[in-house]
């Protein structure tokens, strides 16, 4: 767990040119599935997008999430795993409000 914290904190300290390892953050916080579900909902809301448009949309979501996490960390001054989990889930939940809930299957 200390390796993950190091990966999260160090890039945040390095400034705006450093990229967060969102995959690691999403896996460690248990939010990867929720992020992918959000991406799927965004893709379903569009006309069937091309592969390039799909990739662009997912990367745009990742950039938005990264910006959100940076802003939250800057406002608080530090970030724990629990903070990242809460901030990530809040961002995902806010973005999901724009998409109708799917009906459960069978």
Care to count the β-strands? 0
| Number of helical elements | 5
Largest sheet: none
Bin the strand percentage: under 5%
Average pLDDT level: 78
| Overall geometric form | elongated
How many domain modules? 1
Question: Whole-number radius of gyration?
Answer: 15 Å
SSE string, helices as H and strands as E: HHHHH
Compute the separation of the termini in Å: 38 Å
Give the fraction of residues assigned to helices.
over 70%
Which labels suit this protein?
single chain; about 110 residues; mainly alpha; elongated; 5 helices; disordered N terminus
Short description:
The chain is mostly helical and 106 residues long. Helices cover 73% and strands 0% of the residues.
Structure description:
With 106 residues, the protein is mainly alpha-helical. The chain has one domain. Helix content is 73%, strand content 0%. It contains five helices and no strands. It has helices at 2-14, 22-29, 32-45, 51-76, 81-96. The radius of gyration is 15 Å and the shape is elongated.
Write the layout of secondary structure elements.
Layout: H1 2-14, H2 22-29, H3 32-45, H4 51-76, H5 81-96
């Amino acid at each position: 767990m200390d390796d993950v914290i190091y990966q999260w904190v160090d890039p945040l300290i390095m400034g705006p040119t450093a990229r967060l390892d969102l995959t690691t953050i999403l896996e460690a916080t248990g939010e990867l599935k929720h992020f992918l579900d959000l991406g799927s909902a965004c893709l379903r809301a569009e006309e069937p997008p091309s592969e390039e448009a799909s990739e662009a949309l997912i990367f745009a979501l990742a950039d938005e999430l990264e910006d959100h996490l940076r802003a939250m960390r800057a406002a608080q001054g530090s970030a724990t795993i629990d903070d990242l989990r809460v901030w990530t889930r809040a961002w995902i939940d806010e973005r999901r409000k724009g998409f109708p809930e799917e009906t459960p299957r069978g």
